[in-house]
Amino acid sequence: MLMLSALQQAWAQTQTAISTNIFTLRGRLTNTHRDSVLIYYENNEGKSLFQSRPISSDRFIVTDSLTRPVSAIILFKDQGETLTDSAFDARSREFYIEPGRLYLSGDPSRPDSLKLIGSKSQDEYVMLTKSTAATRAEMKPITDRYNKEKDPERAAQIGMQFAPYDDRVKAITYQFFLNHPGSYVTAHEMISYVSLLGLDSSKYVYSSFPEEIKQSPDGQRLAAAIQKLDAVQPGNVAPDFMVKDISGNAVSLTECRGNYILLDFWASWNRNSRQSNAHVQEVYNKYRSKGLIVIGVADNDSSPQAWKNAIAKDKLGEWVNILSGAGTDNDINDKYAVHFVPTKLLIDPSGKIIGRFGDTNNTHADVLLDRQLAAIFKQ
Question: Which of 29, 209, 298, 358 has the greatest count of CB atoms below 10 A from its CB?
């Protein structure tokens, strides 16, 4: 009897362990016009997974092993249907799934009507999105005009209006991170905010995580992003790159050594960047005779004509102008962990970074740059 009792207890513990490492997503839909549900998420090792399940009588079920909350993309389509990128974006919704019993309901033809219950992480994500909803609603008319505008220069002018709204969203989101250090939502969303929040703030949020989140794939990705930003702070050697400039000439950072180099990360569509261009012009005119080189790195890979127009309009053609190479193996923004423009890095003749200005939206960035240049060139 003692042996039987021990076996029953062991079996019960095994079943509990199994049940806590599985998610079961049941869908009950209304007004269904699709026969398949697609779900994209990460497995326990952080590798991308994809499941497709049939919808029958407005219902479906998806289940798999899962040991932690993860971000998932869910959408609905017909079997054999090929979706364009725009159709995929229009139909998809991001949810946070986690081990346990989850229930999805709503109208697949209206993704915003879909609701997921049973996930604490999803509840936290809803809290975050609601906290920024008012600001994003104010942005929507600008976003709509920006997306509809076909002329790159006019689109750039519209894009300049985003900055104050982006600042508000950043502040609200950072407060959420501070208030929810034990949330997988914080770990996942923080990855794209590292450069924007700055090294000290990012390290502070990460240090508040429990060990299980630090060891999760998102926690490890966040640590890597922080480490990458840390590696391009003052005192470190500037990463090299070789690209073609606006005239088709090869540009190498290493070949520019022996001079002080100002890397100016900017974009034609960014208001603060365009305003900062006049200051860069002043700096260049003041110190060019003393050996200062300016290299403008533009986040305009998808709109090169707008980049060229802005260079002509803002009179930036006297120095080297290159594109960032976004999405390539030679992505300069990625090399320097730049996700916010304008950002400026000052590099000394030995190739060492000696100043980083502005990527956390520091309103005194130009003043600090001026002070450092004046000290270097004894002006």
Answer: 298
Instruction: Please report, as a single letter, which amino acid is at residue 28.
Output: R
Rounded to an integer, what distance in angstroms lies between the CA atom of residue 26 and that of residue 55?
11
Q: pTM for this one? A: 0.78
Q: What is the C-alpha to C-alpha distance for residues 300 and 284, in angstroms, rounded to an integer?
A: 22
Q: Which value, to the nearest 10 degrees, does the dihedral of the CA atoms of residues 149, 151, 154, 156 take?
A: 90
Please tell me the distance from the alpha carbon of residue 208 to that of residue 182, in angstroms, as a whole number.
8
Kindly tell me if the per-residue pLDDT of 15 is higher than 70: no
3-state secondary structure of 338: coil
The string of pLDDT tens digits covering residues 106-122 is 999 899 999 999 999 99
Tokens representing 289 are 């005779």
Query: Do residues 47 and 70 touch, judged by C-beta distance below 8 A?
Result: no
Instruction: Spell out the domains of the chain, with CATH numbers in brackets.
Output: 17-118 (2.60.40), 122-230 (no CATH), 242-377 (3.40.30.10)
Q: Which two tokens stand for residue 13?
A: 């513990």
